[in-house]
Amino acid sequence: MTKILFVCLGNICRSPLAEAIFNHKIRQYGLESHFFADSAGTSNYHVGDRPDPRTIRVAGSRKVPIAHLGRQLSPDDQHHFHHILVMDGSNLRDAIARFGAHPEGLRLMRDFEPGGQGLHVPDPYYGDMRDFEACFDILDNAMEHFIAFLKERHLDT
Ligand code: 4NP
Question: Which residue from 9, 66, 121 has its CB within 8 A of the most atoms of ligand 1, so it is best to mutate?
């Protein structure tokens, strides 16, 4: 079982949405037995909280089930997950600080998108529903490329 962790700052907008989109696609591809996904925040601001209501609304409008309670990234996560995908450069710096290292599988989410190297998934928290819609579209596209990478790396298909 290959384990994937999505990371943002608060763990109520981008990373739980990424986790939900990943799980939805993996179910559609019939690959649930191969991959496990979770999400976490670099901060402790929203530990135990449900995703932001706007995150829940955009997931619902796209028919993507979402269920997660906020948790903070733990130093141990670097040993339990094969791939740890962060949303932006500050998440990357904060994750490295929390881990005390840069584990091999730690990457920016959009690095898997053709031409997306170094690009961020913008934080929609201080925005409106249009920013959440745009966030969904960015994650949905990057996720297709990430899943293609996972299939090639971890499955003999
Ligand atoms: P996220 O968005 O990192 O995508 O979950 C944020 C959520 C909460 C806060 C900042 C960003 N906050 O400052 O509480």
Answer: 9
